[in-house]
Design goal:
Elements (H helix, E strand, L loop, with lengths): L16 E4 L2 E4 L8 H6 L11 H19 L5 E5 L9 H15 L3 E4 L5 H11 L4 E6 L13 E5 L2 H10 L3 E4 L4 H15 L8 E4 L1 H17 L11 E4 L2 H8 L6
Parallel strand pairs: 3-4, 3-7, 4-5, 5-6, 7-8, 8-9
Antiparallel strand pairs: 1-2
Length: 254
Amino acid sequence: MDVPETTGEKSSPLGGTYYRGPVVMRGSMIPKDTTSGNLLRRDDRTDWLHMDPWRVLRIQAEFVDGFGALAEVGPAVTVFGSARTKRSEPAYKAARRMGKLLAERGVATITGGGPGIMEAANRGASLAGGKSVGLGIELPHEQGLNNYVNLGMTFRYFFVRKTMFVKYSSGVIVCPGGFGTLDEMFEVLTLVQTHKVTTMPIVLFDTEYWKGLFDWINGTLADRGMISALDPNLVTLTDDPDEAVEYATHLIGY
């Protein structure tokens, strides 16, 4: 996951702020580990037998809270992209316009709730009077929701958060980003490719940024028979934020 430039949150006299789900920790209370890290850590001890049932309940609670918070959001489009993108960059301005256009169509904007592209899309949506949703994640270097989220939730587990993105989105716009953005993009592509979700418009913004990846997909992957000839057509590439919003929303209402 990309490291943000800033979350815009006021500093505390106790130092940094750490969010573990709904719990806020500062100073000496900031843990050295993360919830996901503890879940995936190899451990030869058997005391995990007594801990995992509690983890299951915690995971269940996150699903219940997420479903409850988002069930009445209405039609929505998720905008993915880097937390590193600066406000002066063209991609930030484009994502801000996407949020504004979505709000004008009565469509909610969902992001990961962080800075960069996520802040830009939330900013455009909230300042246009729309629903601006942020789904944050507990990470050592990405804490807190940006100030333009008007409906937000912070998750412990990536897989719960990803479920919320997919379940409540009618389309996806992917802006330039790093490993986290690529992970989110391929997650959605895999679900659409394998028909685990109904057809969902997927738009990649900034054709030059994605060109090398799709040269490899259309070349190496296709030439070795790793994908079908139809798979590259699951996405649409554009350099126009208006076109991105138009395509991402074109199935809403059908």
